[in-house]
Amino acid sequence: xxxxxxLFHQAQxxxxxxxxxxxxxYYTSDKNVTCRxxxxxxxxxxxxxxxxxxxxxxxxxxxxxxxxxxxxxFCLNCCLPGHYFRECLERAYWNKHCNRCxxxxxxxx
Length: 109
Fold this sequence. Notes:
Pfam families: zf-CCHC. The chain folds into 2 domains: 2-47; 54-109, no CATH class. The protein is built from 1 helix and no strands. By secondary structure, it is low in regular secondary structure.
């Protein structure tokens, strides 16, 4: 617990080290700031002693992976799961012919 409090105190001290040298446009030493990582007041997220939170996957909202390694990924060409467009064995959708109207770009399903 003491080690965490020490890190927390160091984070508070280092918040304002660069502010004195730059303009006082955004933060001054008397303003309270809130961390966007742990939501505790007194330090910024770049100085947060707690580990950074992983961003969620944009496909399934899981926090253990990102979009490129998502198990729920799907192909934009054939709409089947498990692979991407560049790995698809189907012909590209813009080269497909419709059986009804004989135009390119879609199927008559």
